[in-house]
Amino acid sequence: MSEKLHERARKARLDTMQRHVLVCTDDDCGGSGVAKALRKAITAHGLRSTVSIAKVDCLDICTKGTIAVVYPEGTWYAGLKPSRVERLVTEHLRDGRVVTDLVFHRNPLAPGCRPPEHPTEP
Questions:
Q1: How many Å apart are CA 107 and CA 109, to the nearest integer?
Q2: What is the pTM of this model?
Q3: Per CATH, domain 18-106 is 3.40.30.10
């Protein structure tokens, strides 16, 4: 691989990444505000080196409100708003507890990957 690509991977913190959050930003979902709030909260909580946010056009499962999925656990959240982002960041991304009242599906992609501990199933 090219040295330029390796440098981009280093700058993107791929070697320290623990979680990747995909946020639907299609106009129908209104996720641009959620993605912006996520980036701000992740920075405020010192998680920039371990959590990556990616804006995607569509996650192909439209509902009312913004959808986001957290990997590697495969935890799918619905109805996200900028006002709910702080809970997602502090409870799930920082403390490792799923925000069960916002979860609608779970599907870990990697064998043996378990969701964070949580008190109850959604």
A1: 6
A2: 0.81
A3: yes
